[in-house]
Design a protein that fits this description.
This protein is α/β, with parallel strands linked by helices and about 450 residues long. The chain contains 14 helices and 18 strands. The protein is globular.
């Protein structure tokens, strides 16, 4: 069991649980693990979002890297996928993003990327923890001329903007219409400057909201986790589409011209439809997680596509894509990976692929979204004994209740039981055609699990 890293790096309350001393250790151990096969002095990139604690965590990370003997390039405020892209572009040895993604401002986090611009696998995170706990850190101290140096490289964000211009200038320019307008919600986060630069460079008509970060308003009633404001803005301003990013810019959700949500599953269906039409959807396959809506499964079945599902976490989606040569995958939450462009979820990239698909079809966003029908989905948490949360698979009464429900659905519903990775909870997720009925059944199953695993 890992002590520090969770499903998406380290994420904790800044300056208490995520203290500068802990960050220093994570940096020093990470620099060693990620660059121990490097010949010469390693170079590590650091990017961050707009949280008030960002520069504090950044300073501790820089100290750890320099103490090990690595050189550092500070990218400033930049989306996570921008760091991933620049890591490969500059052939850096590793990179790190300081962000707590969609969490509120008091949290912060650390995400490592390898020299390939990909989130590092579980094994490397475990190795970093082993080095941190081994007492080996003092041995990894550079002295004299071996001490690392850092430099600001804030202008490198323009390289990231150029990446979008290079890939979308012509394809979007050829189908762009004067009356097509997009609302951008940057969540007062890492995309607050670069998203506007990209849309301006591509000539897309836009209006931007929640782009005035003050260190504490990141994700506050805005962005991909709070779509209410964007929905209202789109309808009141008669926009063609609204797109919302999360705090670190690796997610994108959308809103159609009527203010209806277009979630990650719907976005993947729309992009898959476009790619397949052009013969660019590798192996006619979408990779998603087990949490994706049953509607995505039905959509793929009805459109001669394949759906491959992984456990929850975009890193597992990426692993499956790399292993089998797929180029489209993602999560319901808006992490969409387009492997032909970037090896991580990229909110701006996803929004441009969605816009391109809508414009090429010459339809409204709502018409494009209607190609997939999502099933109502409910999630109920069963509170259990932490030591017993994995035992639900063995209990005959729990198994019987689940099997009975699955037989009743006969393919028009789904039951997914999943223990929480961090809390004493078992999550009961049920999908079906009747919202009230599946809510009732989810509560019944959760009650049985609570009684049997207390």
């Amino acid at each position: 069991m890992r002590k520090y890293f969770g499903t998406d790096g380290i994420r904790r309350i800044a300056n208490t649980e995520l203290s500068p001393s802990l960050v220093y250790k994570v940096a020093k151990a990470g620099a060693y693990v990620l660059s121990k096969h490097t010949e010469g002095t390693p170079t590590i990139l650091i990017g961050r979002d707009t949280r008030i604690s960002g520069t504090l965590i950044e300073s501790a990370m820089v100290a750890g890297f320099l103490s090990y003997g690595a050189n550092v390039k500070l990218l400033g405020v930049i989306p996570t996928p921008g760091v991933a892209y620049l890591t490969r572009k500059l052939k850096a040895d590793a990179s790190v993003v300081i962000s707590a993604s969609h969490n509120t401002f008091e949290f912060n986090g650390i995400k490592y990327f390898s020299n390939k611009g990909m989130k590092i696998p579980d094994e490397l995170e475990e190795e970093i923890e082993e080095v941190m706990e081994s007492g080996k850190l003092d041995e990894l101290t550079a002295v004299n001329e071996k001490i690392g140096v850092s430099e600001y490289a804030l202008d490198l964000i323009d390289e990231y903007v150029y990446f979008f211009r290079k890939n979308f200038d012509d394809v979007i320019g050829n189908v762009l219409k004067d009356d097509f307008t997009v609302a951008l919600d940057t969540a007062n986060g890492a995309t607050y400057k670069v998203a506007e630069k990209v849309f301006k460079a591509l000539g897309i008509n836009y209006k931007i909201i929640n782009n005035n970060p003050d260190g504490i308003n990141i994700n506050h009633n805005c962005g991909s986790t709070h779509l209410e404001g964007l929905k209202k803005f789109v309808v009141e301003n008669e926009m063609s589409l609204g797109v919302a990013f999360d705090g670190d810019g690796d997610r994108c959700l959308a809103v159609d011209e009527n203010g209806n949500e277009i979630d990650g599953d719907m976005i993947m269906a729309i992009i898959a439809h476009s790619l397949k039409k052009q013969g660019k959807l590798n192996k006619d396959t979408i990779v998603a997680t087990v949490m994706s809506n049953l509607g995505l499964n039905k959509y793929t079945q009805n459109n001669n596509l394949n759906l491959v599902q992984t456990k929850v976490g975009d890193r597992y989606v990426l692993e499956e894509m790399l292993k089998n040569g797929y180029n489209l995958g993602g999560e319901q939450s808006g992490h969409v990976i387009l492997l032909d462009y970037n090896p991580t979820g990229d909110g701006i990239l996803t929004s441009l692929m969605l816009i391109k698909a809508i414009l090429e079809e010459g339809k409204k966003a709502s018409q494009m979204a209607s190609i997939i029908k999502l099933y109502p989905q409910v999630l109920v948490n069963a509170k259990v004994n932490s030591d017993k949360k994995y035992d639900f698979k063995e209990d005959p009464e729990i198994k019987s209740a689940i099997e009975k429900l699955e037989n009743e659905f006969a393919g028009n519903g789904r039951v997914l039981i999943r223990p929480s990775g961090t809390e004493p909870l078992v999550r009961v997720m049920i999908e079906g055609e009747n919202q009230a009925y599946i809510q009732e059944k989810a509560e019944e199953v959760a009650k049985i699990i609570e009684e049997k695993l207390k």
